[in-house]
Amino acid sequence: MLVDWKPLLERWSRELLASPDLEYYPLHPKAIESGWLGFPGATAEQIAHAETRLSVALPPSYRAFLAVSNGWPTTGDFIDLIFPVEDVLWLRDFDPDLITAWENADAAYGADDDLDGVQVDYRHLRHTLVVSDWGDEEILLLNPEVQTLAGEWEAWFFAGWIPGAERYESFGDLMLALHRGFSERVQVDPARIDPEGDPAQLPAKLPHLIQELEDKVQSYRQVEQFTGQLDFGYNAGVIAALDDIVRVVRQLAAQTMTPDDLWSELHVLADRAGQDSDAIQSNLDDRAKLEGLAANLQGMTDAIRAKGRAEGLRQGAAIIHWFLGDR
Which residues have C-beta within 8 Å of that of residue 97, sequence separation ≥ 6? Predict the structure, then answer.
């Protein structure tokens, strides 16, 4: 799809700057002040140098994007950095362990599968081009193994929680979908608390928070079923942490308290979950240095499960903050 990149990115800039999540985005103060969040466009020489380095001609919608903004600081959801062309590289060089894990997974793929689905040929992973940094668990990939007559490469929004990838016909189609999702979320979200509104709205909306948390748990249960033992207990750790948070939120919902007290208790829960997540991660870093966990299978499995718990606590805290209108 042909994309008029300049007006799209200008609109995305305005929406990001108007978002209540603004303080959480990795944006330079000068970019915020200017109102344009993009970067200077890549020159023809920069793009040609990257193509020489990669030994490939980049697809047209991606080249057109780079000419307007050589990278992008955040999509607002999921991805915090789309790389400048100097930093793009093949997935086999960026994260070979990811390729090994997913190529060993049992995944069906057919030529007649619809795009925008989760069915991907995992044999293509080693040939994909990484065009973004990791988000929480998401990354953007371009797949030269599937091309249109116009030379566009299939684009993947790849995430373990899908599991697999949402597939788009081109980089342009992928970016339009990411923008549409962000734009719809920030414009209308009846499940989220209005921080400027009446605090009395909180008890009535609490089921929305529980549903958001349970939806996240369910997404990880689906991933766990798909990956089996390949994750060494990581997803189980995430699920256990989220289940703990759901249980506490249900307990709060069952109690009789003022909206202000409920607001306070939810903030305490989110802050504690975030602190516990940081503590677990710090402890894992210290243990890895002291014990050499990679050489100890049981220790490595315990560490991976604990890392999953840290991630579950972090995501639970983020969902509560989102619900409360904090982010």
Answer: none
With beta carbons less than 8 A apart as the criterion, state whether 246 and 210 touch.
yes
269, burial (CB in 10 Å: exposed 0-12, middle 13-18, buried 19+): middle
Tens of pLDDT, residue by residue over 9-51, are 999 999 898 887 788 888 888 888 899 999 999 999 999 999 9
How does DSSP classify residue 82?
Answer: B
Rounded average pLDDT over 211-223: 83
149 and 242 assigned to the same domain: no
Angstrom distance (rounded) from CA 66 to CA 60: 10
Unique residue bearing structure tokens 């829960």: 269
Residues 152 and 12 in one domain: yes
pLDDT of residue 235: 83
How far is the CA of 120 from the CAs of 16, 143, 146, 149, 229, in angstroms?
31, 10, 11, 20, 21
Report d(CA 104, CA 107) in Å as an integer: 9
Q: Is 33 exposed, middle or buried (0-12, 13-18, 19+ CB in 10 A)?
A: exposed
Write out the residue range of the structural domain in which residue 250 sits: 201-323
Specify if 47 maps to a domain. Answer: yes
H or E stretch covering 144: strand 138-147
Name which of 293, 297, 161 is nearest 235 in CA terms: 161
The encoded tokens of residue 23 equal 């303080």
Asked whether residue 193 is domain-assigned, the answer is: no
pTM: 0.62
Rounded to the nearest 10 degrees, the angle between the axes of helix 201-227 and helix 234-254 is 160
